[in-house]
Automatic annotation (TrEMBL):
PROSITE patterns to which the protein is assigned, alphabetical: SBP_BACTERIAL_3
Regions crossing the membrane: 112-130, 142-161, 173-191
Name listed for the protein in its UniProt record: Amino acid ABC transporter substrate-binding protein
Organism: Desulfosarcina alkanivorans
Domain of life: Bacteria
Cellular component GO terms, alphabetical: membrane
Amino acid sequence: MTVDVEITPPCVMSEETRFTGFDIELWEEIAKDLGLAYVYHETDLKGIFRDLVDGHADVALSCITITNEREKIIDFSHHYMDSGLRIMVLNKTKFSLAESVKSIYSPIVFKAFAYIGLFIIICGHVFWWVEKGHKYISTSYFPGIFQAYWYVLVTMTTVGYGDIVPRSWVGRLMAFLVMIIGIGIFGWTIAQLSSAITLQTLHSDITSHWDLRDRWVATVEGTTSVPALEKLGAVVVPARTIDQAYEKLLNSEVNAVVFDSPTILYYARNKGAGKVSVVGPLFDIQYYGFLFPQGSELRESVNRALLKLRNDGTYDKLHNKWFGSH
């Protein structure tokens, strides 16, 4: 019996002279239960479908999504894992002035500046009211209020030019409050701005699949990722293998890579650790199944074996080993 596989970590991986991965170990448990003898044949996704249709393979596996279109030419087993698509982006390592400027438009920075503005307006009016007519503050609202605003601003920023000083005891009490409260608000605002600039510098502005419109996104050609990205309005950059898609991202040829969640998460935690990040929630929920030629008698036996492995806990042990508790 011939089992077609495509290298798709962590579902199917090659270690020297043998294959390993979640799909491999699950299939081997099924084959042991059914008493099947088999050999693996490595190919790509197109080769898998070609071999099944032409009768050159008896079963195929590699975290392959069940779809109506595919079931027109081959048969699927019952699904053995729920999944979906994930987005992977490149970690930024270079400072960009343009990206830093964008951080000013973040909600937290807007809120911080709004608090400062409100503080200056309130304190400025109080200071103008208690100090108007003295040496430095005009009795007229204009320009007196702007003189008061200026005093509050230079005081809370600890600049203290000394061109305007309070003359009354009430004004001095007001100045004391501006120093204590204003400096705290100003420091908090600077901290929020610094944080926003850091996040904008280190992370991509792609945060969910809704941000992929008009972005260059690499994925494996012929997979369900392609129509999903086209619906989102992304510019799809096809790659023959997922490794080629990773290379395009690492070389900054694309803005992101979108592919099946297990594969993306495995790469980001291993080879891509420190270089890439997975962003956004899971989207376009999918289901994986084993593939058979149409009318294969093996399909029903595999389905029964899958059910048995779920019932006796073997499936859970394998899933926990490769993906954690589910």
